[in-house]
């Protein structure tokens, strides 16, 4: 099978896995009349029993607050209860924005919430991914640290990470590139490749993640090195080697989709996944 066919078939497979229908046991999470996510019905009942600013009406959980500051304080209280009850995993002490479900550019921040709470409530998260290609078409990829709470030892993008509150997508990519791959700001040029949405169940709840993908062209002398301790090692792979490992399930799901789109762009194939 030729490379383009392999890429196309893997993209079709990942596209289906990235757009899972929301099951009936999850109900909308509505903040001041705006849907921001969804959650398990049992968690909605748990919240209604404990907080006066929640109610269930017309099969949706309604959350009320006077403004974004009060909404953030109330969600912080909810987060502490979930943490105490061990309903969340991998607490980060990192704030992410709460936005309307279909706000693809984070234009309207309604509140801030602890990162670990986004999956239980299917709140939208935003991530940046980087594909550094050499002139001959090989790609630098990273193996995640075996100490990572999620996906230890799996292969991943050379650099990738969540975009926190009050940080732009390009700034987040520059920061992650340095922290994870030691790329000094301004030493290589990133260029926007594509974006896509992943909506699927995960161990922590439900992932609704908007991925902003950047490619980069690097010289043969380029050598990534980790700074933040989250990468076990880097490897420069041919596209066919990457596809082999991807078919063997050795890459994270999120990086698989981003790398496939990056490879498709290099092959002159369409990169729009139409997942919105």
How would you describe this protein?
This protein is an alpha+beta fold and 276 residues long. It has 2 domains: 160 residues, Nucleoside Triphosphate Pyrophosphohydrolase; 96 residues, Transcription Regulator spoIIAA, CATH 3.30.750. 28% of the residues lie in helices and 31% in strands. It has 6 helices and 13 strands. The strands form 4 sheets. A 4-stranded mixed β-sheet has the order 2-1-4-3, covered by helices on one side. Helix 1 packs across helix 5 and helix 1 packs antiparallel against helix 6. The relative contact order is 0.18. The mean pLDDT is 94. Its cofactor is Mg(2+). This is NUDIX domain-containing protein. Keywords: Hydrolase. It holds the Pfam family NUDIX. It comes from Parasutterella muris.
Supply the key terms.
276 residues; 13 strands; 28% helix; four-stranded mixed sheet; NUDIX domain-containing protein; hydrolase; alpha+beta; Transcription Regulator spoIIAA; Nucleoside Triphosphate Pyrophosphohydrolase
**CATH H-level homologous superfamily name of the largest domain:** Nucleoside Triphosphate Pyrophosphohydrolase
- As a percent range, the share of strand residues is 25-35%
Q: What's the SSE pattern?
A: HEEHEEHEEEEEEHEEEHH
Structure class:
alpha+beta
- Report the major sheet: 4 strands, mixed
Assign an overall shape. elongated
CATH architecture of the largest domain: Alpha-Beta Complex
């Amino acid at each position: 099978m030729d490379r383009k066919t392999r890429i196309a078939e893997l993209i079709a497979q990942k596209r289906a896995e990235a757009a899972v229908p929301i099951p009936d046991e999850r109900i909308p999470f509505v903040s001041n009349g705006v849907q921001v996510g969804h959650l398990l019905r049992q968690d909605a009942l748990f919240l209604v029993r404990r907080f006066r600013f929640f109610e269930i009406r017309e099969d949706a959980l309604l959350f009320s607050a006077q403004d974004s500051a009060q909404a953030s304080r109330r969600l912080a209280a909810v987060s502490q209860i979930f943490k105490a009850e061990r309903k969340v995993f991998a607490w980060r002490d990192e704030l992410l924005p709460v936005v309307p479900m279909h706000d693809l550019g984070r234009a309207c921040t309604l509140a801030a919430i602890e990162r670990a709470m986004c999956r239980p409530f299917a709140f939208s998260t935003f991530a940046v991914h980087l594909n550094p290609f050499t002139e001959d078409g090989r790609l630098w990829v990273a193996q995640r640290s075996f100490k990572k709470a999620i996906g230890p030892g799996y292969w991943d993008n050379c650099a990738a990470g969540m975009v926190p509150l009050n940080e732009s997508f390009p700034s987040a990519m520059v920061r992650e590139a340095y922290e994870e791959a030691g790329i000094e700001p301004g030493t290589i040029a990133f260029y926007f490749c594509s974006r896509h949405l992943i909506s699927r169940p995960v161990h922590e709840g439900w992932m609704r993640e908007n991925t902003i993908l950047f490619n980069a062209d690097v010289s043969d002398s380029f050598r990534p090195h980790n700074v933040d301790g989250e990468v076990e090692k880097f490897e420069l792979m041919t596209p066919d080697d990457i596809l082999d490992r991807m078919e063997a399930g050795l890459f994270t799901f999120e990086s698989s989709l981003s790398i496939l789109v990056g490879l498709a762009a290099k092959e002159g194939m369409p990169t729009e996944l139409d997942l919105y």
